[in-house]
């Protein structure tokens, strides 16, 4: 949809230097986990926009984006200061690497890529499908949601930032056979993740991939 003011429903910490911002969903807004939206805020340097991927399993009443906070950033600290009832201009959704009702899923996530990973995992599990998440980060976020996914039967593996991804990726593919693979993260993570996917016997060409920059 075109740029529209969305009302903030909540702002919550989800781990080190990270928040989840939830917005009330307007009747005309439709999106799926893994798509992203553009948020625009007034900063000291003028109006600036940033893109954030939807990290909630659906957008029925509210939807959530996960934001990493750089204290020196122009936009993220302003998002952290938002209160319920505040308004933020939102444009979108955008992107084509999102969950489209596939049955079983495997998600490889680096850093903020865990946002769409948990959203997709929760959506798949809610539909009685299998899910596996391999998440690489030295300071993991969304731990509570990852724990609930694990308790629900999903395969969840958290590895350190410099860890090799081949073995955990192979384990995820073995746990959830014939799954749609998603890969989310910054460019350096994507390179490592795609190499690991190929080495683990996965189909890299069939993966849905979103580069965070």
UniProtKB/TrEMBL annotation:
The source's superkingdom equals Archaea
Molecular function, one GO term: oxidoreductase activity
Pfam families the record matches: FAD_binding_6
Name listed for the protein in its UniProt record: Flavodoxin reductase (Ferredoxin-NADPH reductase) family 1
* Occurrences of domain FAD-binding FR-type (ranges): 1-100
Check the record and name the PANTHER family matching this protein: NADH OXIDOREDUCTASE HCR, PROTEIN RFBI
Check the record and name the InterPro entries matching this protein: Cbr1-like_FAD-bd_dom, FAD-bd_FR_type, FNR_nucleotide-bd, MRET, Riboflavin_synthase-like_b-brl
Q: Give me the segments passing through the membrane.
A: none
Q: Gene3D superfamilies from the xrefs?
A: Translation factors (2.40.30.10)
PROSITE patterns per the record? FAD_FR (PS51384)
